[in-house]
Amino acid sequence: MATLKLEIVTPEARIYSEDVDMVTLPGVEGEMGIFPMHIPLMTQVSAGEICARRNGQDHFLAVGEGFVEITGERVAILTDMAIKADDIDEARAEEARKRAEARLAEKLTDEESVTVQAALLHSLTQLNVKRRQRR
């Protein structure tokens, strides 16, 4: 069976690099399912959940905004945040959410507001992915 090489990279590290059977990712136009031999495509990734199916098992990651390059053999994602679901610390993510929400209530510059909103989005994405895994 054909596979895809899924690589997820942040500015800090390579988070994921495996051969997978299928990838589902959050695109700006909606969720996209990518199989081997997909038509070449480059698009934006929205914050959300990535599902990588490998050997019949689904592996989940929380990702931030970024870009994806898709070829017939490879899916390469460059994002500002990526964390495997098993590595998400729910208590830390919840605390980060509370801090960001409290900070948004303050008077902020436009630049500070964008930074805090990004932090809030990261924490909410992690919480959604972690809590969904418990179901």
Task: Report on the biggest sheet.
Answer: 5 strands, mixed
CATH level-1 class of the largest domain: Mainly Beta
CATH level 3 topology of the largest domain: ATP Synthase, domain 1
The average pLDDT value, as a whole number, equals 92
CATH superfamily membership of the largest domain: F0F1 ATP synthase delta/epsilon subunit, N-terminal
Strand order of the largest sheet: 2-1-9-8-5
Fraction of residues in H or I helices:
25-40%
Taken in chain order, the helices and strands follow as: EEEEEEEEEEHH
Shape: globular
CATH architecture group name of the largest domain: Sandwich
The total strand number stands at: 10
The structural class is alpha+beta
Please report the distance between the alpha carbons of the first and last residues.
Answer: 30 Å
Low-confidence stretches: none
State Rg. Answer: 16 Å
H/I helix tally:
2
Strand content: 35-45%
Number of domains: 2
Task: Please give a structural write-up.
The protein is of the alpha+beta class. It has two domains: 4-85, F0F1 ATP synthase delta/epsilon subunit, N-terminal (ATP Synthase, domain 1, Sandwich), CATH 2.60.15; 89-134, Up-down Bundle (Single alpha-helices involved in coiled-coils or other helix-helix interfaces), CATH 1.20.5. The protein is built from two helices and ten strands. The strands form two sheets. It has a five-stranded mixed beta sheet with strand order 2-1-9-8-5, with no helix packed on it. Strands 4-3-6-7-10 form a five-stranded antiparallel beta sheet, with helices on one face. β6 and β7 (57-63) form a beta hairpin. The model has no long low-confidence stretch (mean pLDDT 92).
